[in-house]
Amino acid sequence: MDPRRTARTVSDPKVRQVGFFTPAPPERSVSDPPRFQDPIQPPSPSPTQVNDHSPSGNSLSPVMIPPAHHHSDNFLRTALQATSPTKAFSYSAKTVTIPPENEDVASSFSPGRKVVSAKSPSSFPGVKASSVPASELTTVSVVNLPPGISEKAGGASVEVQNDRPVSAKTLKEKTSKAERRALQEAQRAAKAAAKAEGTKASSAASKVVTSANTKPSKAAKSSSQKNDGSQVAASEKKGGDRAPEKDRKKDAPHPRMQYDDKSRVEKAKKRAVVKQTEARNRVELFRHLPQYEHGTQLPDLETKFFELDPMHPAVYKVGLQYLSGDIRGGNARCIAMFQAFKEAIKDYSTPPEKTLIRDLTARISSYVSFLIECRPLSISMGNAIKFLKNRIAKLPLALSESEAKSTLMLDIDRFINEKIILSEKVIVKHAVTKIRDGDVLLTYGASSVVEMILLHAHELGKHFHVVVVDSRPKLEGQLLLRRLVRKGLSCTYTHVNAVSCIMQDVTRVFLGASSVLSNGTVYSRVGTACVAMVAHAFHVPVLVCCEAYKFHERVQLDSICFNELGNPDAISKVQGRKEINYLDGLVNQENLQLLNLM
Amino acid sequence: MDFQVVVLAGGNSKSLTPLVSKDVPKPLLPVANHPVLYYVLHQLEESNLKDLIVVVEGEDAGLLVGAWISGTFVDRLHVEIAAVPEDIGTAGALRAISHYLTAKDILVVSGDLVSDVSPGAVAATHRRHDAVVTATLCCVPISGSSESGSSGGKDKTKKPGRYNIIGLDPRKQFLLHIATEIEKDTRLQKHLLHAVGQMEIRSDLMDAHMYAFKRSVLQEVLDRKDTFQSLKQDVVPYLVRSQLKSEAVLSGIRQAEEDGNEKVSFPNNQVMVSQILANASTPSFHELYSMDPDGSAQTRKTHKCCAYIASSSSYCVRLNSIQAFMDINRDVTGEADHLLSDNVIGPSPKLGTKTTVGPHCMLGEGSEMGDKCQVKRSVIGRHCRIGSHVKVVNSVVMNHVTIGDGCIIQGSVICSNVQLQERVVLKDCQVGAGFVVTAGSEYKGESLARKEK
Q: Is A7 a residue whose pLDDT tops 50?
């Protein structure tokens, strides 16, 4: 299951080149410092390979690097290069056994109770209390479940839809193509029946079905060589089952879905957990990107709090925090997501008649699609998810559930520690050498790495001045400024519109990045290019600090083809100044379109 | 979602004396022909909360409530009844069932709440901020006070101190002050004001008595402060008051968290991770306050008390007085009729000739009415027999009531099994269950009840 692959058929790079953004020299300067990034940058694709792929590219995008770099092994390798002291850690040696906690949760309520509750419906179908003892809990009403349904703590109603694919899936281990085909027909029929029960139920079922379809190829892929594994899998997918292509598209709405394609948007809306009202007045150039009425999402998601049974509370909390903007920044979002996943894996128990590898992958996918609905994923998160799914798929079948879970949790810890924390430390160690006494350093927004660099340099006793450049509407720089000032750094704070004035005093520019793409393009928050170009004009060196796990093989020629649109109302309001309300009530005017690029 | 729901369906309430009795405990008091508890349970069911604990005061009431729930909600809800001794207050009731609470967070809902505020929204707010307590606040219904004059003028029974004084932070997320009774003066904490910088004090908000608590903290507070009687008057104000100096409350939890962290093999990195996470979000005043003025080390322990403010369009009233009872009856049949799922007029009312039933009325099944009756803005229960030339305006008539010919009933509540003989005139009265009003008598603004033997 590789949603990115299928989604990419839509984005035709020839069309994308229309934008006003050309790879001009100023942009180069952003990605300029190769001396700094060389050791951790993956090899760039050769142009011949690019040409090879483009004619055949029905499923592969024309501009794409060979699949060898596609796997997260690549990231592992590059990160290991960057983080040589890793060897000190021995994570594989320790195995922590975690007892399956769900059983505990399910039964922990029962002690000290006179009448057994409905958690074991098979034994007490429809118990009613006859006597009410004082100050004891008495079950007076129970929920009768139809027999034969797996019990789960609280999730009785949801499980009903899932048992249909389950029965089919046990057969699935070793089937020929024809058999698989037949199975799919049956599943589709079953799904059509399920659809009658409700849209949500059907989407859940289809998710299981699609994941079941694609997993065998993935398992095969993981065992064979990684180099051509994905290609084989892709061709197999194309030739073997053309029919499920439709099903697969129904899977999670990908961030790169073209939102000007009406029929697709409609389909995505049907299975969405978060109610997304699309903003009506959108800028023509960015119609293909999702943009929603921002006020509507949060209250709606909140009211559904108890209705999303399959969602783990930790994941739900993170989703809420993304949506409300409580967690921002690539690293923080990635870490928060992984910690939530860790919680989810800790509480996970494989349902009967399912295998952990497949069911957990499906579960994680549903979490991810929920998070996407809350806010589009950052590239770092995409890479992290790919890593996790890869680890799940590669779990040896012989592993017991608790072992598998502890392995995965250790993997997650290792990812956070190695790919994020350690690489940040390495970057800091290297970048600090670029700071000299008497420097005036400029930074834009609030990047966690840049902040660490500045603090570390300060700890080393270097004397320098920091210029924090900020921009509305989020004003993240103020938080950075507050922290820097508290640590005793001397700072200047200004907004991005004054950057050309302040730039003449600056000796170095440090920028954080959301991602570095395979053609060297730096992908960061809006305004970064502007700062970099001004720095270029003033002949000020620019250093971009980006962890290796944020690298991506995608090639993006401009910032129009993919971007994130924020709440357009945010730019019309000024914090702390209520009297500025010139745009109030004008938002729904036909000839006014607000654009808040993120 | 790791939430447990506790419905506090208190037994008898003194402010509703003629209406509630031993046979009809407060949770079963019919509002528009449904017990008031039905509204809470129905709403919880709609938000997919099916495992509930209902706490009832007194064993008899527990039996009655349990019988009713098992009859109404069988196959739909999984409800457990806990009967607690009377007069131990809401906090005492929670203390009594404390050992049944196991989930991470507890949602406490009052059983006399009639509202359409989603409990999910409260829980989500609670979770998002990782708060210790989240209180649901709703705007005071405007219709309640303005129309009350026309509906009976029961202003004297309405307590003036029903509304609270509530302090909020500028972003309206955190609860800074809560005072339940309006006193001459109320004391604000200086250090809290100093930490927040700005406080918004409002008196137009009402505490809906729907709280989300962090279980560990709630249990600790209940254990520690065994004099606390009421959630609303003791526990919540205490938590709000101590939110910036919560060493006593939170020490145990923090300890546990730190222990958990040390098991991880990279303790040093864990600090960095948490720092990255902390830096990513806008710090609330709690975090700012807990920092040292110079460094970043957290020295002072704080906890967050959140507020969920329901939108002004949502309906939210507590049934805690006769006036509220009248208001709710009127609203449920009228403007807030979405709270009830079934139809307003029962299946088989027998109406005589020239009898008119106005809008916003509700007739229970099996009720019979004679000729030339008028019913306006009233609720009439099941199996009532109403004679001819009867006028019922702005009133609530419960089940099995017999009303003789020529009665005029205005703004009154008539409980079950009451017999009104001919030509009775009632205005703004409450008639207790089983009472017999003799023919031709006139009452105004009185409360009639059978004497307890």
A: no
Contact B66 A132 (CB under 8 A): yes
C-alpha to C-alpha distance for B259 and B107, rounded to whole angstroms: 28
Q: How far apart are the first and last CA of chain B?
A: 50
Domains and CATH numbers, chain B: 3-144+163-247+303-329 (3.90.550.10), 343-448 (2.160.10.10)
What is the structure's pLDDT at A23? 44
Query: Long-range contacts for A14-19 (Cβ within 8 Å, ≥24 apart)?
Result: A16/A557, A16/A558, A16/A560, A16/A561, A17/A557, A17/A558, A19/A285, A19/A557, A19/A558, A19/A559, A19/A560, A19/A561
For B73-115, the pLDDT digits (tens) are 777 778 888 888 877 778 888 888 888 888 888 888 888 888 8
Q: Does A321 touch chain B (CB under 8 A)?
A: yes
Q: Cβ contacts of residue B447 below 8 Å, gap of 6+?
A: B17, B18, B429, B430, B432
Contact call for residues A50 and A588 (beta carbons, < 8 A): no
- Pair A532, A29: CB distance under 8 Å: yes
Residues in chain B: 453
Q: The complex's ipTM? A: 0.72
pLDDT at B267 over 60: no
**What is the distance in angstroms between the CA of the first residue and the CA of the last residue of chain A?**
29
Least confident piece of the model among A73-87, A127-141, A383-397, B5-19: A73-87
In this prediction, residue B13 carries a pLDDT of: 64
Q: What is the pTM of this model?
A: 0.66
Residues 275-304 of A with CB under 8 A from B: 299, 301-304
A303-to-A275, A295, A308, A568 alpha-carbon distances in Å: 11, 14, 10, 24
As a whole number of angstroms, the distance between CA B107 and CA B113 comes to: 14
Helices assigned H by DSSP within A224-329? 226-240, 244-249, 262-271, 294-303, 313-324
The span from the CA of A79 to the CA of A39, in Å, is 10
- Check: CB of residue B452 under 8 Å from CB of residue B435: no
- Contacts of residue A256, defined as CB under 8 A and 6 or more positions apart, other chains included, come to A4, A7, A8, A10, A11, A562
Dist. CA B69–CA B79, nearest whole Å: 8
3-state secondary structure of B225: coil
> What pLDDT does A102 receive?
41
Q: Please name the member of A94, A108, A420 whose beta carbon is closest to the beta carbon of B102.
A: A108
Q: Which of A109, A138, A421 sits opposite B269 (nearest CB)?
A: A421
Cis omega before residue A473 (within 30°)?
Answer: yes
Give the CA distances from residue B197 to residues B170, B176, B296, in Å, rounded to whole numbers and listed in that order.
9, 11, 20
Mean local confidence (pLDDT), B194-209:
79
Does B283 contact chain A (CB < 8 Å)? yes
Mean pLDDT along residues A241-265: 50
Residue numbers of B between 76 and 95 with CB closer than 8 Å to A? 76-85
Dihedral Cα B378, B383, B386, B392, nearest 10 deg:
-10
Q: How many angstroms separate the CA atoms of A161 and A203, rounded? A: 10
pLDDT tens string A125-148:
333 333 334 445 666 556 554 444
Alpha helices in A470-515 (DSSP H): 476-486, 499-502
> Which is more confidently placed, A321 or B347?
A321
pLDDT tens digits along B277-288: 666 666 666 666
The model's confidence at residue A510, banded by pLDDT at 50, 70 and 90, is very high
Report all structural domains of chain A as residue ranges with CATH numbers, in order of start. Answer: 262-420 (1.20.120.420), 434-563 (3.40.50.10470)
Task: Read off φ and ψ for residue B258, nearest 5 degrees.
Answer: -65, -40
Return mean pLDDT, chain B.
Answer: 74
Tokens encoding A483: 């922290």
Residue closest to B11 by CA, chosen among B88, B94, B98, B116 = B88
Mutate to test the interface with B, among A136, A306, A378, A406 (most CBs of B within 10 A): A306
